[in-house]
Amino acid sequence: MRFAHVYGETVLDAPASRVVSLGYTSQDPLLALGLRPLAVRQWFGDQPYGIWPWAQPLLGDAQPRLIAGEVSMEIVASLSPDLIVGVGSGITRAEYDILSQIAPVLMQPPERSTYGMRWDELTLMLGQAVGKPNEASALVARTRGAFAAAKDRHPDWAGKTGVCAYHFGGDTGAFVGPDTRASFLSELGFRRPAAIDAMPAPNSFYLNLSPEDLSPLDADILVWVSASNDAGAIAGIPLRKTLKAHRQGREVFAGALVAGALSFGSVLSLPYALDSLEADMVAALDGRPETRVASSEAAGLAP
Fold first, then answer.
1. In whole angstroms, how far apart are CA 225 and each of 26, 90, 184, 283?
2. C-beta atoms surrounding 55 within 10 Å
3. Which domains does the chain have, with CATH numbers?
4. Which contacts qualify for 277-280: CB closer than 8 Å, 24 or more apart?
5. Residue 212: is it exposed, middle or buried by C-beta count within 10 angstroms (0-12/13-18/19+)?
6. Which residues form the Fe/B12 periplasmic-binding domain (predicted)?
7. Low-confidence ranges of the chain (pLDDT < 70)
8. Per-residue pLDDT tens digits for 158-181
9. Where are the beta strands (DSSP E) in 34-151?
10. Which ranges constitute the DSSP H helices of 189-255?
């Protein structure tokens, strides 16, 4: 099996079974494929072994090493892997060269940015690498089917505008481009407001807005994505109450756990996020401002 990538080509003579997962989210598709990684890269959150609730049942009694911060070559070597997943890890060419002396390393294809490989592409790639291509295809089909079924249940969503927004460190803005929080809504038939599409996004994944003009966020549905369950900072944004989405009860709050699922954007986490948000999205989009949107109300964001 040959895999062309940004740092060259990786060849696997046989399916891998001892895998170190250095990508910040690659543990999810590995677990979905029935392979428990020897080590997992810590991204954020205080989850046991870096495995979030949507994937924890698949971990069983395995206890992978948790690699936080920079990649420890010593830890990776001590585990004697036969494959290292570097997709979405941010490792440098120098780190790749060292790791390749330990085991074959998979990286993202040349046409993808460091963190820009789609969830379905990653799942299919790993399925090939661990000798389970049919299982990987079935997993991708199941997740796509969940979104297709949601679109069928809500044909009125097609063509409406939607934004996943953030407020972090005093900055407010929207997730855009290939970011999984942006693509989550597009998978459901929503489109971004023209005002956001018209603005340059130098960071490709997100777009900071001027605190003096939050009008680009005024979509048919506005999903606030927060790393915390405390929405006080969002509630305190001075110009938020000028948005029609707020005044008409079309805001949804994705707290820490659901925000984590959206951020992971994996074959396992996306259905979890959809299950968690669908009812609130229906309530926000029913055309009646008086309808309770449970997450927004619980977070103190309701008008």
1. 21, 23, 12, 18
2. 23
3. 2-143 (3.40.50.1980), 155-298 (3.40.50.1980)
4. 277/223, 277/252, 278/150, 280/252
5. exposed
6. 18-285
7. none
8. 999 999 999 998 899 999 988 999
9. 39-41, 65-67, 83-85, 105-106
10. 194-197, 232-235, 244-247
